[in-house]
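Marked as duplicate of an earlier ticket. Keeping the data here for the record.
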Amino acid sequence: MNRLCPYCFYQNESSTNRNCARCLRDLTHIPCCDNCGATRLAFARYCYHCGQKLSPIQAATIPSTSYRKRPTSPTRTVNLDGDFDQAERDDCRKTQFEQESLRLLHLQTGRLLALPAQVSRIVVGKAGADSCPHIDVQNFPNSEVVSRQQASLHIVHTDCAIADLNSTNGTYVNHIQLPVGHHHPLEFGDRIDFGQSEKFTFLFIRELPINLKHLQTVSGGDIAFEQEILQTYDQRAHLSLEQMKTAIIQQDSVLLASTAEDLALASHNVGAQVVHLLASQLHQDAHHKSATAQGQLLNVIEEALQKVRFFTKVYS
């Protein structure tokens, strides 16, 4: 049987492999369905493979962060003096839905980048004779504004901070330049620009298909109502997806903007936080980005919606 990686959702061809072929994380301690041996996902009430209802012991509860983004100050400090080795060991024992996966979304191309696993200090830059960053953006558009060692991301447990590494054009978070060496804590949806020109931009994402805490607040803890909310959202979201595809083909920026705005609002209501962020960005880009750039972002939205649909299937 293929083994689903709960960290990156990759379907590994062999269930005997110790590590995921995509993200290289150790899969040996990931629990499996007692009936069919498929990966057990922490949020699931039913096995995604055989449909077997999971026992209350199997259906683990998951901690969830607040959906609302917390305001931060550019001068706020973050404690990075934790036990990195212990943090890395803890992270290896947590699944995608027990600890939200960290992602960088490159706005200019729509590429979604997973941060390297088990690395507490991640350097972003361009590879060269004397530089080998963890995230190499050498082949990205407009990479000329990025230094060989542009910035570093520091991860302790589920917290992440960014620091500028004395880059040529500076690192900006939400349009505010970071002092060199200052560790600025990142929140969901923060915008990271390399240089002032807005030619090279990442969005910081903690990727979770549905924020369960938000959904349970909306539903009042009524499981049947939660299922109805998710199913209604799924139908509406995929209708919006087709309308946006049509709008891009017909170059109808008004329809694209209004549909993206509707999707963003619907996504916010159910706690589909990644889709909400992406749809909001597409709404902003509808009138001044090329059809190619819009299409790339729409592809990322479609992938995020597929993960929401998968979540709905096993959570219902």
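See parent ticket for discussion. DSSP finds six helices and 13 strands in the chain.
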